[in-house]
Design brief:
Layout (H helix, E strand, L loop, with lengths): L2 H18 L6 H24 L5 H24 L7 H33 L1
Helix pairs in contact: 1-2, 1-4, 2-3, 3-4
C-alpha cells in the first residue's frame, strides 16, 4: 500500500477539521460537522488498518470502508451550511468535496485491482 495515499488521507482529515473551525456552529451544523469529522478521519484510519495485512478479506473490507467514508464525507460537506457572502468558505468546501470524490475513486480502483489479482 502507499505511504503517499496514507498521507493524503491524513491531509484530507486535517483540512476538514480546519474548515469546520471556520463554520457557523448552530444546532444543525454541529451535528453535520460531527458526522463529517468522524467520516473524514475514518477514511485514513481504515486505510491504515488495511495496510496491516490481516488477509485479503480484511484488506478488501477496510478499503471498502475507506471508500464509503470518503463518499459520506462528500455528502456531509454538501449538507453543511455556509454563510452567504463567504465565497472563500464555499470554494474550500468545493475543493474538499472534490478531494473526497477523488479518494473514493482511488479506493474503487484499488478494489478493482484486488478483485483482478484474486482471479489471476
Amino acid at each position: 500500500m502507499s505511504a503517499e495515499l496514507e498521507e493524503r488521507t491524513f491531509i484530507f482529515a486535517r483540512d476538514i477539521r480546519s474548515f469546520c473551525r471556520k463554520l457557523k456552529w448552530d444546532i444543525i451544523n454541529i451535528e453535520d460537522i460531527r458526522q463529517l469529522v468522524r467520516s473524514s478521519g475514518s477514511v485514513g484510519a481504515n486505510y491504515i488498518e488495511a495496510n496491516e495485512n490481516l488477509g485479503k478479506a480484511d484488506l478488501r473490507m477496510r478499503i471498502r470502508i475507506s471508500r464509503k467514508e470518503a463518499k459520506e464525507s462528500a455528502r456531509w460537506l454538501r449538507l453543511l451550511y455556509v454563510e452567504p457572502g463567504k465565497a472563500d468558505h464555499e470554494s474550500e468546501r468545493n475543493r474538499l468535496i472534490d478531494e473526497a470524490e477523488q479518494l473514493k475513486k482511488i479506493f474503487s480502483a484499488i478494489l478493482i485491482k484486488l478483485e483482478h489479482s484474486d482471479k489471476g
